[in-house]
Amino acid sequence: MAALVSGVSQEKLRQWKQKAGDYIDEAKDKLYALSKDIWSCPELAYEEKQSHDRLVHFFTDEQGWTVDSHYKLETAFRATWGPVGGKEGDVVVNVGLLCEYDALPGIGHACGHNLIAEVGAAAALGLKGVLESISECPVRVKVTVLGTPAEENYGGKIDLILAGAFEGMDMVFMAHPSQEDAPYLPDVAEHDVTVRYHGKASHAAAYPWEGVNALDAAVLAYNNLSVLRQQLRPDWRLHGIIKHGGVKPNIIPAYTELEFYLRTPKRHDLPAIRSKAEMCFRSAAMATGCQVDLEYAKHEYHNILRNNTLDRLYKTNGEALGIDFTTDQEVLTTSSGSTDFGNVSYVVPGIHPYFYIGSQALNHTEEYTAAAGAEKAQFYTLRTAKVLVMTALDVLFCPGVLQRVRAEFSEALLKDERERKRRAGGDSSEPKHCGGAAALH
């Protein structure tokens, strides 16, 4: 990086980063209270009324924020501050920070979304505080916080994209709890499918020949998919459950229902795995004489489009605050999670790092629920928020960095479009291996 940015020295930038961290530390008690309140009332996708209201009140109570309580979606919100700095007529750089706050059924905040909300809120306070303290800020800046519901199901960020919520943003930041610190882990593309078999009920002992067994179809489909796995690429995944298998052992099941998740490292391979899975589902119907209905989720989750410039800045700033980023190749090359942030990364350049919270418990377990609500997680959560702000300050005040972020984003989109056209043209060559993430969706 060059030594000066519109009169801003590297020493001055270092001081601003320190000051941003100080603002976050000053707010640590109310930030922990915010996180704990969300953790204490786990709510499912698009039902996050209490968590949504708590975040809305948090930003409403903070001076200077303009809050749209129900922004585009009932349980989404937007809080904006600025623009400030620069000269009248300057282009505004809009920095986006995302909060998640939905939970999992039965085990609450086992993915730590209460901490994601806290990171977003903390980073917002830190960035606003330091920008307010700069008497003559050389860049005209706006800060936008988006509350994004329904990550665990439905894809709330995708609905917000379609509603235009990300228009005008120049970069987007969020961070996800995990078992280690990493500036980037390659989350994969994913699509849900619900499969329903319709047969005919009959007495299972007296005249079973009169029935058409929908449970047989479900079991055959499950086994078909298990056999199919041998022919799938090692980094493709399909996994599911039988949600409904009948009502009583002496009744031939007339209805069964399965739910499966289909995952591939790149979004362009989802059609291929869907096609293979559908043959398994439909052949089970043919073998048993059942009717079958397939219902795909409204949205696909896309893989994250990586921005190396932002990742490098995050890593450098994290190391300056003492973060020991993982070098475990198994972690870095074994993918498992999916997130609707992937769709955001195709619309706005962004970063989605992972952070350690003081526990080796695995996401989506009761142990991780406890860890996400523990006071021990606070040091790591607030440190992560500081690193996000430091990274945003580098993009704002280091010469050419924002241009590099934008150029890399455009190049990645062009490469992705070329790949899409290649696949559409019938090139059957396999994708390269893509690696690991903490469990999300």
TrEMBL record:
Annotated spans, Disordered: 418-441
One Pfam family linked to the record: M20_dimer
Name a GO molecular-function annotation. Answer: dipeptidase activity
* InterPro entries in the record: Amidohydrolase, Bact_exopeptidase_dim_dom, Peptidase_M20, Peptidase_M20/M20A_hydrolases, Peptidase_M20_dimer, Xaa-Arg_dipeptidase
- Domain annotation Peptidase M20 dimerisation: ranges: 193-282
Provide the family line.
Answer: Belongs to the peptidase M20A family.
Name under which the protein is recorded: Peptidase M20 domain-containing protein 2
In its UniProt entry, the species of origin is given as Conger conger (Conger eel)
Source taxonomy lineage?
Eukaryota, Metazoa, Chordata, Craniata, Vertebrata
